[in-house]
């Protein structure tokens, strides 16, 4: 009896952890939220270094307004991801990230992102299966990425260059 219980527990835990390790969304969940045909970048929330996804509802069939709102959302997401990467790297490097430093990071990243806004390019757009939401994928072009990395490395001299590489990678 104990063997059966132990075997069942092992199988359950194995299935549980296999499910947790998978980053894909089930077909049923995709269909429920209108993502049955969603591209990989919508599911992941990014597509490569210095990219982000934003979304907005389509109201009164106004695609242009939804695209503009989704672009704003994506730029904000890109800024937050850069900020998070820098804070995580600061912490990893042994610096205490208190409220004051956190605000400094946020301010510098926001200022730098605003300065590089011309380099943010719309790479792809997708409308969900129900036609209710629009998703955009943005990328920071290579010259703006270089400028951003250079500016951030000057502002945060104590961080290693890897802190400004792929913002999707764990520090």
Helices and strands, with pairings:
Layout: H1 2-21, H2 27-32, H3 40-44, E1 51-57, H4 63-92, H5 99-115, E2 120-127, E3 133-140, H6 142-155
Helix pairs in contact: 4-5, 5-6
Outline the structure in words.
- This protein is α+β, with helices and mostly antiparallel strands.
- The protein has a three-stranded antiparallel β-sheet with strand order 1-3-2.
- Strand 2 and strand 3 form a beta hairpin.
- Helix 5 packs antiparallel against helix 6.
- The longest helix has 30 residues.
- The protein is elongated and about 50 Å long.
- The protein starts with a helix and ends in a 16-residue tail after the last helix.
- The N terminus is likely disordered.
Quick take:
This protein is of the alpha+beta class and 171 residues long.
Supply database-style keywords.
disordered N terminus; 6 helices; alpha+beta; single chain; three-stranded antiparallel β-sheet; 3 strands; 13% strand; 171 residues
Strand content: 5-15%
* Apparent shape: elongated
| Major sheet size, sense and barrel closure | 3 strands, antiparallel
The share of residues in helices is 40-55%
Counting DSSP H or I runs of 4 or more residues, the number of helices is: 6
Cα gyration radius (Å):
20 Å
Low-confidence stretches: 1-23
Order of helices and strands: HHHEHHEEH
Termini separation: 46 Å
As laid out across the biggest beta sheet, the strand order is 1-3-2
User: Mean of residue pLDDT?
Assistant: 77
The computed structural class is alpha+beta
How many DSSP-defined strands? 3
């Amino acid at each position: 009896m104990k063997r059966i219980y132990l075997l069942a527990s092992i199988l359950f835990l194995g299935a549980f952890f296999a499910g947790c390790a998978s980053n894909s969304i089930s077909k049923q969940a995709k269909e429920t939220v209108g993502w049955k045909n969603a591209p990989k970048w919508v599911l992941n929330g990014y597509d490569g270094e210095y990219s982000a996804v934003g979304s907005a509802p389509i109201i009164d069939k106004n695609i242009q307004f939804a695209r503009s709102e989704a672009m704003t959302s994506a730029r904000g997401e890109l800024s937050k991801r850069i900020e998070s990467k820098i804070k995580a790297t600061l912490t990893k490097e042994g610096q205490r990230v208190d409220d004051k430093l956190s605000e400094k990071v946020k301010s510098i990243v926001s200022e730098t992102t605003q300065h590089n806004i011309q380099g943010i390019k719309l790479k792809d757009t997708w409308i969900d299966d129900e036609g209710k939401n629009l998703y955009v994928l943005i990328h920071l072009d290579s010259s703006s990425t270089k400028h951003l990395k250079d500016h951030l490395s000057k502002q945060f001299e104590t961080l290693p260059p890897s802190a400004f590489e792929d913002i999707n990678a764990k520090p």
